[in-house]
Amino acid sequence: MKRGLIRIVLPLTLVAAAGAAAALVATNASAGAKATVKTVKNGTFGVVLVDGSGKALYRYTPDSKGKSACTGQCLAYWPPLLIKATAKPVAGAGVTASLLGSIKAKSGMRQVTYAGFPLYHYKADSKAGEFAGQGVDGTWYVVSSTGALVKKKASGGGDTTTTSGTTTDSGGGAAWG
């Protein structure tokens, strides 16, 4: 009797699990059907990129144009801004549409880029207006409307802005890192 019950219940359980997994993949894919990138003015960082819901977007300094260096455990804390493979990112207020693009990501999705560099969220930023990822490990920074990294000084002096691998310092204090 037990063996007969296992033969019936096990296949049903496997089918249910497969259906749940497919639903999860479909939900994630539909969530990335459209990604809007816009700007907000922040009292600390100036005008920076955020997603359509106002959550901060970051760049990872080891990335290069067109290539993400964030893999494995990194992605658990820094989820990429993803869209469906057939979608295009949308330029919201303050964003230069010609700077928006995307690169191939895992699982058939594409990662949104700005000025050629991949964009990410930070897991600890749970709502709009939070910038907890700024300066983490000296490698994660918010992005200006021109695509430059915005690095604020720990001492509150000037900013350091990085564009195309060149850093300019407006003075005051040591950089985060």
Quote the distance from N terminus to C terminus.
65 Å
Number of helices: 2
Helix content: 10-25%
* Topology as a string of helices (H) and strands (E): HEEEHEEEEEEEEE
Structural class: alpha+beta
* Spatial ordering of strands, largest sheet: 3-9-10-11-12
User: Compute the gyration radius: what is it?
Assistant: 20 Å
Spans with pLDDT under 50 lasting ≥5 residues? 9-31, 153-177
* Major sheet summary line: 5 strands, antiparallel
Based on DSSP secondary structure assignment, what is the total number of beta strands?
12
Dominant shape = globular
Number of domains: 2
Strand content is: 25-35%
Average of the residue pLDDT scores: 77
Please give a structural write-up.
It is a single chain. The strands form three sheets. The protein has a five-stranded antiparallel beta sheet with strand order 3-9-10-11-12, with no helix packed on it. Helices cover 20% and strands 29% of the residues. The chain is an alpha+beta fold and 177 residues long. The chain is built from two helices and twelve strands, in the order H-E-E-E-H-E-E-E-E-E-E-E-E-E. The radius of gyration is 20 Å and the shape is globular. The protein has helices at 2-31, 73-77; strands spanning 36-42, 46-51, 58-60, 82-84, 90-91, 100-104, 109-114, 117-118, 140-143, 149-152, 159-163, 166-169. Mean pLDDT is 77; it is low at 9-31 and 153-177. The chain folds into two domains: 1-31; 33-169, no CATH class.
